[in-house]
Write a structure and sequence with these properties.
By secondary structure, the chain is α+β, with helices and mostly antiparallel strands. It has 3 domains: 51 residues, no CATH class; 61 residues, no CATH class; 94 residues, no CATH class. Helices cover 41% and strands 11% of the residues. The protein contains 9 helices and 7 strands. β4 and β5 form a beta hairpin. α8 crosses α9. The longest helix is centred in the last third of the chain and has 18 residues.
Length: 264
Amino acid sequence: MESEAGRFRRNHWVPVPRARDLAALNAQLLAACQSDEQRTVAGREQPVGAALLVERAHLLPLAAEGFDLAEVSFPHVNSLGCVKVKTNAYSVPVKAGTSVQVRLRAAHVEIWHAGRRVAQHERCYGRYQDILDLEHYLDVLERKPGALAGSKPLEQWRQLGRWPASYDQLWDGLIARQGRAAGTKAMIELLQLGRQHGQDPLRAAVETALTLGCWDAAAIRHLLATPALAHPAPPALAASALARFDRPLPTVDAYDELLVGVAR
C-alpha cells in the first residue's frame, strides 16, 4: 500500500498540480483515482478497480456515525465585526460582543450563532490577515454610505472578482442622478437585495438594466422580483374538449305571460 501511495504521488503530484481551489483539486485527484482503476498491476490478472470490488466484500462496514473533522472554538465578535481564528480575523454579521461558534475546516471557516450558520469564509492559511465580506457591513454602511468607496471589504470584493464593472457603472449613474450621498445609499440598498435573491441574480439584473439603458433602482428590484411573479401557463385545451361547456340558448317566451291584463 505504501508503494502504491508513492506511485500515485509520482504520477499525479509531480509536478505539483495547479487548481483554482481545494474543491477543484479534489476533483482532479478523483479523476486520477478513477483512471488508476483501469490499470493492471504487473503479475495480476484483474485491473485495480475489479480487485477493489473483491476486496470490499472482506472489509468491515463503514461506521454508522460520521466523525466531524472540524476544529471548534467559541470566540467573541470584536468591535470591528470580526472573530479571531488562528491569528486571522473573519467578518461575521453579528453584534459585537456576541459569543459565536467557529468550525474550522480544511477549506472553509464556518461561523454559527443561535443554531444557524451566519457566515462562511474560505480558510486563509496566512497569518494576521483580515478576511472580510462586504455583505456583513451593509447595515452599517447604510448609516454611513460615505465609507463604502474606501472600505477594505469593497477592496477585497474587487480582488476576488465579486464586484464587477457593471456595479461601478450603476453606481456612477446613481450618483449622477441623485448626488454622491443619496446615490451611494441607493447602491447599498441594492446590494442588500443580494442577501435575499443571491449575488448572481442581482448581478444579472444590474447588467440587464444597464443593457436596457435604465439606471433606476426600482427597475432592478422589478427585474429581481419578476421570476417570483411568473406563473406557468395552463395547458391548451382541444376545441372538442370545450363541448362539455355548451349550454342551450335561453328563451324569453315565458315573459309574455307577464303582459296579461296590461292595457295595450
